[in-house]
Design goal:
The complex is a heterodimer of chains A (159) and B (400).
Chain A (H helix, E strand, L loop, with lengths): L10 H9 L6 E5 L2 E5 L5 H10 L7 E9 L7 E9 L4 E9 L5 E3 L8 H12 L2 E3 L29
Parallel strand pairs in A: 2-5, 6-7
Antiparallel strand pairs in A: 1-2, 3-4, 4-5
Chain B lengths: L15 E5 L11 E7 L2 E8 L7 H5 L8 H4 L7 H16 L5 H29 L3 H22 L8 E2 L2 E2 L7 H23 L3 H7 L7 H6 L5 H4 L7 H4 L20 H25 L18 H6 L1 H12 L7 E9 L2 E9 L7 E5 L1 H5 L3 H5 L5 H10 L3 H5 L1
Antiparallel strand pairs in B: 1-2, 2-3, 4-5, 6-7, 7-8
Helix pairs in contact in B: 3-4, 4-5, 4-11, 4-16, 5-6, 6-11
Classes of the chains: A alpha/beta (159), B alpha+beta (400).
Chain lengths: 159, 400
C-alpha cells in the first residue's frame, strides 16, 4: 500500500480508519476527487457507517457506475458516488470484483436508489448483487444474451 | 425491460392488471407502467423502461473525446446544452483544462436558456396531460423563440453540440445578445399569462394539489434530485453546492417548498424560470464583447483557421486533433451539474488513449422515475398521469 503521505491525513479516511483499520484498502486522489477503495466484505458496513455517523452524513447516493478492466483481474470495478447534503462533501467508494464469479453485496437496503443502478450494472456488465430484491435486466430484453458494456463485447456486428 | 407480465404482480382475487404504455400519449415517450388496480385505486405500479435504449455509453467508447459530444445532445433531447456542458466539463476536469471566462459566461447564458425551454415544454405538456390545451400552445410558442436563438448561435435548433472541449464551437454571431434581450423582455409577461391560466384555476388545483406527495426522507433515500427534491424542502442545487462554470459569480435564489406535491412542483418550475431569466440578464452584462472563446491548449483545442494558413505547427495540430484526437492522462472523474431535471452526472474514465475508456451518464430522470411507485400507489388511476408528468421524465435520458 504505497500511499502518498498527504492522503494519510485525509479527514474522512482518518475517521473511517479510526473506526475500522481494515475498511480502506487504498486512498486515491485525482483531480481533487477522493476515492476510497473498499474490500468487498466491508462494503455494506462501511456504507452504513458513512451514512449514519452525523459528522460524515453521506445520505445521498448519486450514482453507481460499473467499469470493465478486461483483461486485467479483478476486472470489474464499481464506483459509488456519495454526496453528503448536510456537509456539502462528496466521496467515491470503489469495489473490485473478479471476472470468474462477479458478486458484490447490494446496498439497496442502505440507499433504495441503488435498486435500478444495480439492475443496470447487472444488465450491462453481468455483475450480480447479493441481497438485491429484484435482480433482473433493466434496459435490455429479458432473453438477451451477453452483457453489452463488457470490453469483450463488440460495439458493432454480430458476436 | 418487459419483464413484468400479468402473473408476476401480486394478483389478489379482486384486483385487475392494466397495462399503460409504452405507446401512450401521457407517458412522454415510451414508458410502460404495469398497474394493479382495485377498482379505481392503484395497488401496485411497476414502471418498465428500456424501450428507447440506444447504447449511447457503449458507442462513446468507440469515438474520440470530441466526437462523443454529438451523442450527448441525444440523451436528454429537451436540454441538449446541459448535456454538452456536463460532458465537456468532465473531460476538461480530466485534462485539467481551464476555460476562458467569456466562454464560461456564454455557457451559463445558454444553459439557463435551455432550462427555460425545457421547463416550458414541461409546463405545456403537463397542462395538456391534464386537459389544458391553451397553455401547451402558448408554451411552445415561447420555446420556439429559444430554439431560434440556439439556431442563430449554433446553427441547430436542438442537436446543438455547441460546447466543445476547451470552450465553444464558434464565435456567437453579431446581434445575438439583442435577440436574447428581446426574449428576456418578453418572457415575464408571458409567464404571467400561463400563471393566469393555471395557478388559481380550480380544475388545475383539484388535479395537482395534494397529489403525488413525496417526503424529504423518501426523496433522499431514492436519490431524487432537482425540482422534485426541492419540492420536499431540501435546497440541494448543484449550482449552489458545487459551483461550476462560474455560477458562484451569479446571484440567484433556489426556490423550495415543503408541500412535496404536484402543485408545489409546478410552482417551483415557474419560479425557476424566473430565476433563470435573472441569471440570463446578469450573464448578458458580464459577457465581454471580445475575447477568446477557446482555451489556449495546442493539441486539444483546434487552432484558428487563419493561423493554420501561416503556421506549420498549427496545421500539424489540426491534422492530429481530427485524425487521432488527444489523450488525457489515465484516471477517473465525476462531474455533476444541475440540469433542468436534477443532478446530471458524467463519469469519464481514461486509460490514456484518445478514446474514453468508459463514459457514464447519471441521468436525473432515470433516478427520479424510481419515485413513481411511491407517488401513485394507493391513489386513483386519474392521478397516474399527473404523477408521471410531475417527474418530468425524458425517456431518451432514462434509457440512454
Amino acid at each position: 500500500m504505497a500511499e502518498p503521505e498527504e492522503l494519510k491525513h485525509d479527514p474522512i479516511a482518518q475517521r473511517v480508519r479510526a473506526w475500522d483499520p481494515q475498511a480502506i484498502a487504498e486512498v486515491i486522489e485525482f483531480r481533487g476527487e477522493r476515492t476510497l477503495v473498499v474490500p468487498k466484505s466491508h462494503l455494506r458496513r462501511m456504507c452504513e457507517f458513512l451514512r449514519d455517523v452525523p459528522e460524515l452524513g453521506f445520505n445521498f447516493l448519486s450514482d453507481v457506475t460499473g467499469l470493465d478492466r478486461f483483461p486485467v483481474e479483478p476486472r470489474f470495478e464499481l464506483n459509488y458516488h456519495l454526496l453528503s447534503i448536510p456537509h456539502r462533501t462528496t466521496l467515491r467508494l470503489r469495489v473490485r470484483a473478479h471476472g470468474a464469479d462477479p458478486v458484490v453485496p447490494s446496498v439497496t437496503t442502505i440507499w433504495p436508489t441503488a435498486n435500478w443502478h444495480e439492475r443496470e450494472i447487472f444488465d450491462l456488465f453481468g455483475v450480480r448483487f447479493e441481497g438485491h430484491p429484484n435482480l433482473e435486466r433493466l434496459l435490455m430484453p429479458q432473453d438477451w444474451e451477453g452483457y453489452p458494456l463488457r470490453k469483450d463485447y463488440p460495439v458493432q456486428g454480430y458476436r | 425491460m418487459a419483464s413484468t407480465t400479468i402473473n408476476t404482480v401480486t394478483g389478489a382475487a379482486k384486483t385487475m392488471v392494466l397495462n399503460m404504455g409504452p405507446q401512450h400519449p401521457s407517458t412522454h415517450g415510451v414508458l410502460r407502467v404495469v398497474l394493479e388496480l382495485d377498482g379505481e385505486t392503484v395497488v401496485k405500479a411497476v414502471p418498465e423502461i428500456g424501450y428507447l435504449h440506444t447504447g449511447i455509453e457503449k458507442t462513446c467508447e468507440a469515438l474520440t473525446y470530441s466526437q462523443a459530444i454529438t451523442l450527448t445532445d441525444r440523451i436528454d433531447y429537451l436540454a441538449p446544452l446541459s448535456n454538452n456542458l456536463a460532458y465537456c466539463l468532465a473531460v476538461e476536469k480530466l485534462l485539467g483544462l481551464e476555460v476562458p471566462k467569456r466562454a464560461q459566461y456564454i455557457r451559463v447564458l445558454l444553459t439557463e436558456l435551455t432550462r427555460i425551454a425545457s421547463h416550458l415544454v414541461w409546463i405545456g405538456t403537463h397542462a395538456i396531460d391534464l386537459g389544458a390545451m391553451t397553455v401547451f400552445l402558448y408554451c411552445f410558442r415561447e420555446r420556439e423563440e429559444v430554439l431560434k436563438i440556439f439556431e442563430m448561435i449554433s446553427g441547430q435548433r436542438m442537436m446543438t453540440s455547441y460546447f466543445r472541449i476547451g470552450g465553444l464551437a464558434l464565435e456567437p454571431p453579431p446581434g445575438y445578445l439583442d435577440r436574447i434581450q428581446r426574449f428576456v423582455e418578453l418572457m415575464p409577461s408571458r409567464l404571467g399569462e400561463y400563471e393566469d391560466l393555471l395557478t388559481r384555476n380550480r380544475i388545475w388545483l383539484a388535479r395537482t394539489k395534494g397529489v403525488g406527495i413525496l417526503t424529504a426522507k423518501d426523496a433522499i433515500a431514492l436519490g431524487v434530485s432537482g425540482p422534485m427534491l426541492r419540492s420536499t424542502g431540501v435546497a440541494y442545487d448543484v449550482r449552489k453546492y458545487f459551483p461550476y462554470s462560474s455560477y458562484d459569480e451569479f446571484e440567484f435564489d433556489v426556490p423550495t417548498s415543503t408541500d412535496g406535491d404536484c402543485y408545489s412542483r409546478y410552482l417551483l418550475r415557474v419560479a425557476e424560470v424566473r430565476e433563470s431569466l435573472k441569471i440570463v440578464r446578469q450573464a448578458m452584462v458580464k459577457i465581454p464583447p471580445e475575447g477568446p472563446i477557446k482555451s489556449d491548449a495546442p493539441g486539444i483545442v483546434a487552432p484558428q483557421r487563419e493561423k493554420m494558413k501561416i503556421e506549420m505547427e498549427a496545421l500539424i495540430y489540426h491534422f492530429k486533433i481530427y485524425t487521432e484526437g488527444f489523450s488525457p492522462p489515465p484516471g477517473e472523474v465525476y462531474q455533476r451539474i444541475e440540469s433542468p431535471r436534477g443532478e446530471l452526472g458524467v463519469f469519464v474514465a481514461s486509460d490514456g488513449s484518445p478514446k474514453p475508456y468508459r463514459v457514464k451518464f447519471r441521468a436525473p430522470s432515470f433516478v427520479n422515475l424510481q419515485a413513481l411507485q411511491k407517488l401513485i400507489e394507493g391513489r386513483l388511476i386519474a392521478d397516474v398521469v399527473t404523477c408521471i408528468g410531475t417527474i418530468d421524465i425524458v425517456l431518451g435520458e432514462v434509457d440512454r
